[in-house]
């Protein structure tokens, strides 16, 4: 059973989603699913710009106060962990250190929390978990999944990854997954067998380089088309 203890409450912004997934102006006109969006501000920011975005995540079965508490409880340990493993990440003028990272993530999560009740009531935040989603076939033009599939390769087996991507392909005409690394910034052990499996089933699968790179070597996304 999914509990709050399972959640890594670490949310990214619309700008980060745009560069992780090479989201274009034309993507913006379509229906987008953000799967495993967690406390990202992607949906809140995109909706404010007029995009059509639905996010799904088992986190959304909890209320604002519970999610905020979980963020507050775990925040310092994430900062400490990131400091300990700072060499795994790409620091830049834009994001010079762990403190700046903490501010950026907290700002994104605060924006998510402010939007959550209204967004959940209007169906933009849906409690759902892979590998089964409560959406009709072809509900979305693009389904994106950031920092869940492949990242937790040790915790979830290859079969889970295949079933999850097939499910995303059922509900979305195109699927994009980022990054292709697992925790520890090493290439995911499942990528090549998942790609082979999907190709055997007749899917068009591409690995593409993207602008975003925060984990060293984490600058590739998987694009799957039916
Ligand atoms: C590290 S967060 C990523 C948040 C966001 N996508 C981002 O990149 O900022 C991983 C998310 O995966 C969600 N998650 C865990 N199990 C899941 C499942 N079976 N299906 C979908 N999402 C799941 C967690 O609740 C959490 O919000």
Automatic annotation (TrEMBL):
Stored InterPro entries: SAM-dependent_MTases_sf (IPR029063)
The organism's place on the tree of life at top rank: Bacteria
Name of the protein in its database record: Methyltransferase type 11 domain-containing protein
Species the sequence originates in: Lacipirellula limnantheis
Lineage: Bacteria, Pseudomonadati, Planctomycetota, Planctomycetia, Pirellulales
